[in-house]
Amino acid sequence: MPKDSRVLYARLMTSALERLPELLLDAVFMVEEGGRIAFVNPACRAIFGYAPEEMIGRVILDFIHPDDKERTIAEMGHVLNGRPGLGFENRYLRKDGSVAHIMWTARWSPQDRLRIGVARDVSERKMAELRQAGMLSLATAAHRAEALPELFRAFDEILRDLLPLRGMVVVLQPGERVAYASAHEDAAPHEAAGWRHVTLPASGIAFGEMRLDLQRPGALSAQEIDLLEFAAGQAGAVIERLALHADLSHAARYDELTGLPNRRLFQDRILSAIARCRRGQSRGALLFIDLDDFKQVNDEHGHLVGDQLLHAIARRITSCVREADTVARIGGDEFVALLENVADLAQAEAVAGKIRQVIATPLALSGRTLQPHASIGIALYPEHGEVIDQLMRHADQAMYAAKALRKATAA
């Protein structure tokens, strides 16, 4: 190549290399030994939101996320000592306050006394990784949750790392019940004020809403919306699971027709009552209550009227005892009342007499007037037994004796 051509080629190459940083999508920095920015190419505007002239002359540490400064200073020291920095990642604060995840390649130029680095914005990849990890954490929290406050407390912590979240309020239907709150909700929050409402769905039912207090108003990104919808779906599934568990637990312990404790729960209650009586050396009473001629009601008026009668009888018995006492339905037309701290047989008989009188009050059901009657047997603790079987046997025998006496008297 002729000399003139070589000179021209060198000038062209020099000019092209000088303009090359303007064409790069990555940010190119030249930083003085003390940390002051000497040069940055135009790509800094797209990555950090600053024009080059807004960054040149400032200390680079001013732009670094506070939580990453310490380890970034350590990495800078390694580069100054001659070790190239390859793939180091840290966070910077953009001009709008948002976070940029940056991956660096840097080296120290002794002849220029400059640290030269190329910064690549990996925020999209990093946020995708964080969202994936966040979704896994949300799913894990949902799987482990045994109570709603525990669930939403975990969701709050996880979402704060993924969204500009200041706090949340969770309301459930029906009744707008507040299940969790880590933020003060205005009387009428709306999205323009920075609030975002997300429905909690499961099986086509809306169980309530997560109301999120965001640091910035306006639209969320598609990825952020997907994340919130995933969280809401997980929460809805937990609410449904806990509700089903509560329903099953209630059904296992309570009579579906009357709402009274069933035989299983009654046995737990009487065991506890016997233990308290034993510790306190006090008396208790068991009343065995059986409706007279209940089969005749079903035969003459139908099972619907029979069910209505049982429901009414349950309310009437409950109205005759103290709140601390237990009324249970243990069979078709058989009820028991468990009385604690009973002074003597006379007190138990007085309660039984009140129950008989209240039950015998005429009752209008489905256009018919019925006058039910009940036979009641009484067993005292500890006189008539110190275990369930003994007390139940005595009360049952006393009930049949009362029923026989009533029939004999009626004849």
* Beta strands, count: 15
Strand proportion, as a percent range, falls in 15-25%
CATH architecture tag of the largest domain = 2-Layer Sandwich
The CATH class of the largest domain turns out to be Alpha Beta
Count of the separate structural domains? 3
Query: Which range best describes the helical content: under 10%, 10-25%, 25-40%, 40-55%, 55-70% or over 70%?
Result: 40-55%
Structural class: alpha+beta
Q: How far apart lie the N and C ends?
A: 138 Å
Continuous helix count: 12
Estimate the global geometry from the Cα principal axes: elongated
- Calculate Rg over CA atoms: 39 Å
Assembly state (oligomeric) = single chain
The CATH topology assignment of the largest domain is Alpha-Beta Plaits
- What is the mean pLDDT? 88
Spans of at least 5 consecutive residues with low confidence: 12-17
Protein name: Diguanylate cyclase
Domain GGDEF: 282-411
Domain PAS: 13-83
GO molecular function: catalytic activity
Word description of this protein:
The protein is of the alpha+beta class and 411 residues long. It has three domains: 3-121, PAS domain (Beta-Lactamase, 2-Layer Sandwich), CATH 3.30.450.20; 126-252, GAF domain (Beta-Lactamase), CATH 3.30.450.40; 263-410, Reverse transcriptase/Diguanylate cyclase domain (Alpha-Beta Plaits, 2-Layer Sandwich). 46% of the residues lie in helices and 25% in strands. The protein contains twelve helices and 15 strands. The protein has helices at 3-23, 43-48, 52-55, 69-80, 123-144, 148-160, 222-253, 263-280, 294-301, 303-318, 345-359, 388-410, and strands spanning 27-32, 37-40, 85-93, 99-109, 114-121, 165-172, 177-181, 195-202, 205-214, 284-291, 326-329, 334-340, 363-365, 368-370, 374-381. Strands 2-1-5-4-3 form a five-stranded antiparallel β-sheet, sandwiched between helices. A four-stranded antiparallel β-sheet has the order 7-6-9-8. A hairpin with a 4-residue loop joins strand 11 and strand 12. The longest helix has 32 residues, at 222-253. It is elongated. The chain starts with a helix and ends with a helix. 26% of the residues are buried. It comes from Massilia eburnea. This is Diguanylate cyclase.
